Amino acid sequence: MRKLIFIAAAAMLMAAIAGCGTSTAPPPPPAGTGPVQIIRTPTPVPANDEEAIRQLIVAEGEAVVQQDIDRLQGLWAPDGVVTDANHTPDNPSDDKTWKGWAAIRDRYVNIVFPSNPAFAEHPNIRVTITGDTATAISDTKIGITNLKDNDKWTFRKIDGQWKMTSLTFSLAPQQ
User: Fold this and answer.
1) What residue ranges define each of the domains in the chain, with the CATH number in brackets?
2) What is the pTM of this model?
3) Which of 19, 81, 90, 136 gives 153 a disulfide partner, CB atoms 3.0 to 4.6 angstroms apart?
């Protein structure tokens, strides 16, 4: 009988201990707060088409500095064109052109990214919108370059979103 009472008491004690279940270990951290944390600020929703185009130009500069080729691809129309006017906009014979995303990607990866710019800005943006197409002229501030009216951009609205269709740079006369 004593043995039966002892077994019953031991079983109740084990059940009581198991029921307490208090852990001294801290709770796991919230998702995304580990040692490496990537913080992405949401892209603001543009109030209008002009603001959307300005945001695209700013995003292109940010992606250049961050060397974010995936972000850049999302900004461009697949059939985009980049042209280096070589500071002679009236003489197309000395231009260098990259046509289509594959060529534009190669330009970013092999020419732009290796220069490792600390900033790439396009101040003084002037936008003209005509239906689902637009153009913009901007100044260029990248590395030691600071040129007025140096870049001409074109855009097309594709599936309700503005995409870059061309960039012609080095329009300003050689200094």
Assistant:
1) 49-169 (3.10.450.50)
2) 0.72
3) 136
